[in-house]
TrEMBL record:
It is a lipid-anchor. The lineage of its organism: Eukaryota, Metazoa, Chordata, Craniata, Vertebrata. The chain crosses the membrane at residues 463-485. InterPro entries: Leu-rich_rpt, Leu-rich_rpt_typical-subtyp, LRR_dom_sf, LRR_TM_domain-containing. Belongs to the Nogo receptor family. Residues 393-429 have a biased composition (Basic and acidic residues). Residues 302-316 have a biased composition (Polar residues). Residues 1-22 form the signal peptide. One of its GO terms (cellular component) is side of membrane. Coiled coil: none annotated. Its main location: membrane. PROSITE patterns: LRR. Pfam families: LRR_8. This is Reticulon 4 receptor-like 1b.
Amino acid sequence: MFKRGCGLEFLLVLCGLELSWSCPRHCICYSAPSTVSCQAHNFLSVPEGIPPHSERIFLQNNKIHRLLRGHFSPTTVTLWIYSNNITYIEPSTFQGFTLLEELDLGDNRHLRTLSPETFHGLGRLHALHLYRCGLSALPNNIFQGLRNLQYLYLQDNHLEYLQDDIFIDLHNLSHLFLHGNRLWSLHQNTFRGLRALDRLLLHHNQLQWVDRLAFHDLKRLTTLYLFNNSLTELAGECLALLGALEYLRLNDNPWECDCKALSLWDWLKRFRGSTSSVGCVAPVELAGKDLKQLRKEDFPNCSGSESLHQSKTKSWAGTDKVSLKQEPQPAQPAQPPQTHPHQPHLTEQFPSSPSPLPQPPPAINGVQAGPGGSSGVVTPQRPGRSRNCTRQRNRDSKGKGPNEVHTSKEMADKEYSSPDFTGKYDHTSPDSSTTRRKHKCTPRTSVRPPSGVQQATNRGNAYWPLSFFSSTVGLLVLLSTGFILR
């Protein structure tokens, strides 16, 4: 007969099972995959005792101030630290994290600056969240080597400019969120290298000027949002480079519908995708009218202006070849040219803008109000595109309107379909219909462990996973039955 308390231990040893696992105080830990959830406990620093082989670490909604090297293990695959008080990240914090796929540092409003080396070496990173971090500038080479990155969230910061070639290594980036910043100009090489980009959100900025070649590498772009800026003109040649474009939003800009608008008017007449209204504010006789609805007779004294078709034939036919020739090899990306932040980078190969460059806007106190959280416009995936393996998650929203941005769940299957996880992305329709987003300030649903997993006590007690317990009970029943029959 088994001694009391010894039978269970004996069976566990026979099965090769460990008797305990460590878990930080106040946290929840479980395996398959190994996960540590320490969210919403007012931690002032990263808690001690995180198992060294943890794959998923959830530290959101705490008060953590600093991230230092040694806080996490290189085995980490998913790391959420959004909605904390992070002000400093040691440059080597994520050094050697070759397995990291998702890093969420969003909603750390006092982060403000990052070292250029912060994300170097994260070759498998799919999603990087830096929204609402108080960033006023991005250092050169901050995204160097992130060739597998697909989602980059930079919205609701204080960015005033983007230097040339800042995204040149992001060959697989499909979503770039830049709305809710203070950007006032886009240069011809701002987006160079983003040949896989599908969605570019630039609304709720202070854009006054866009170079004619600003989008010359965006051959696969399907969605472009430029609404709620300060644009008075936009060359039709600029949009003619976007051969895959399907959704365009230009409303809520002070458009001047004079001769400068003729090429844009010509392009809009030819475009077969979805566009918003383009409301004219000048000249006086056209104020309040939609540029798309104007007739050629509404542009008197503009006979000398070239049409979009003519200008494309003369000036822009060789754009692709020139761009390819000037782009450096991926293995050795070129250093961003040292130009003044508010002057476009012009080269001999590309003609300059036909209009004088406007002066930068005066400084303001705070970011211009935007729609809030992370959002993207998602259309059905086309055959042949690489499937994204990044989990979709609901973000917040402050404003709703005719330009709501849509994101669908592209990975509702596999492990990301588990009810243990709350979505962090927003959901509206691509034609700007109703939204189902939740406000960011509302506390998110906690990540719950599967049934049978116990929360660690203040003493850091160990737990037994449900599967081990079930196996043990079954073995005990079999042994007891055999003993009784004898």
